[in-house]
Amino acid sequence: MTLWTAKEAAEACGGRVSAHWEATGVSIDTRTLAPGDLFVALKAARDGHEFVAQALEKGAAAALVSRIPEGVDEDRLLLVDDVQAGLERLGIAARARTRAQVVAVTGSVGKTSTKEMLRCVLGAQGTVHAAEKSYNNHWGVPLTLARMPRDVDFAVIEIGMNHPGEIAPLSRMARPHVAMVTIVAPAHLAAFESLAGIAREKGAIFEGLEPGGTAVVNGDLEVSPILVEMAEARSAQVITFGEAAGNHHRITEVTVGDATTVAQGRAWRTPILFKVAVPGRHFAVNGLGVLAVAHALGLDRALAITALGQWQAGAGRGLREVILLDPVETHLTLELIDDAYNANPASLGAALEVLAGAHPKDGLGRVAHGRRIAYLGDMKELGQGEHDLHRAVAALPAMGCIDTVHCVGPLMRDLWQALPDEKRGHWTEDSAAMAERVRHDLDAGDVVLVKGSLSMALARVVDAIRKMGQVPAGGNG
């Protein structure tokens, strides 16, 4: 199905074309480009103009460029003054022509998993457009919008930030009918003076709300009043969710199991019972926020609750896998919790609670009892208090139930030194060195958490654990 014709794209971007073409998608990466895509030659680590010829050879319909690359036929180009600005205009035009109800999501923790919950819940009641990855920055948001078909029922736009002033323009681009804030926690403190400063940046998502729009806000936070005030300043209807008394949507009881989390509470002024197919109180709280979004959109409550129960965490974001260590003796397994995509104090605390509640299996391997083991990498962008925040992890209540903690990176050395001797595992400078050790450190019956900031590359540790065996069919918990 045609997404953009040459004429439509040129009008949207304020650019120039010299021939007719039709694009069925939009891409910024030749490695994932599909035939028929419009290739956008952004400048990042390298100038995308260097890859235009390759993109066209791979079947791109055309390329969005600010100059004509050597040896490339101008008939397959969309020329603009600035490629980034051209992509933004393309996204704005796509948003203007769609009939979709748009939901925007931000937060220090849980943006992407909440986006995927929304994809699942909204998808049970219509067609949904959302980015397949965590495309939430200055190019990710317009790219997600530019890829949006005009006839979808819902769109979910994830919006993130690293520095002040990033969220508001992205929200104005997305023009959401509903904007949700999952949590405000110590993350990116290097760029902000305080938690209140982070809250004000997150609350800027309400700047783009459509008239009569709804703000869905975590009401359990110290900074919740800041978020509510910013939403009300935009004349938004406010729905709060969480566990505290006074929230419009409230969880009153949470039961965390090995594979699911069941929550009870009140929403729509009536009692509710719902589950998410992954362990973690924080997943249940964000799930309640998703149900609040469904309520704001006027969707069917029963269908929303049923669909939420079918959502599962993705790779790097709490995905649980059973690793088969011996293809013959199939009882010899360990469980992996892959949460290696990102980390800050709030998300790390939540992940450690999940590990503390897991159930290792005794009597399977060379160690007499199954263990709860964590591989933790540095939490980045925490500012001047980063060393104290890493040391403080040792005092979290969940640590009392964890057997061994292995630490990766110079900041995690602070945690490693703060741990009691009986819990202190190995410390390594980088993930490659730690990945070499996992076969010696782990055994059948163990439950293993891997978590750290993306730049710490703890995916190497995850891969090393996976390579210890084979993942059984249907092995996700």
From TrEMBL:
InterPro entries: Mur-like_cat_sf, Mur_ligase_C, Mur_ligase_C_dom_sf, Mur_ligase_cen, Mur_ligase_N, MurCDEF_CellWall_CoF430Synth, MurE/MurF_N, UDP-N-AcMur_synth. ATP binds at residues 107-113. Keywords: ATP-binding, Cell cycle, Cell division, Cell shape, Cell wall biogenesis/degradation, Cytoplasm, Ligase, Nucleotide-binding, Peptidoglycan synthesis. Residues 24-67 form the Mur ligase N-terminal catalytic domain. It is an enzyme of class 6 (ligase). Belongs to the MurCDEF family. MurF subfamily. Residues 105-294 form the Mur ligase central domain. Its EC number is 6.3.2.10. This is UDP-N-acetylmuramoyl-tripeptide--D-alanyl-D-alanine ligase. Involved in cell wall formation. Catalyzes the final step in the synthesis of UDP-N-acetylmuramoyl-pentapeptide, the precursor of murein. The gene is murF. The lineage of its organism: Bacteria, Pseudomonadati, Pseudomonadota, Alphaproteobacteria, Rhodobacterales. It comes from Salipiger abyssi.
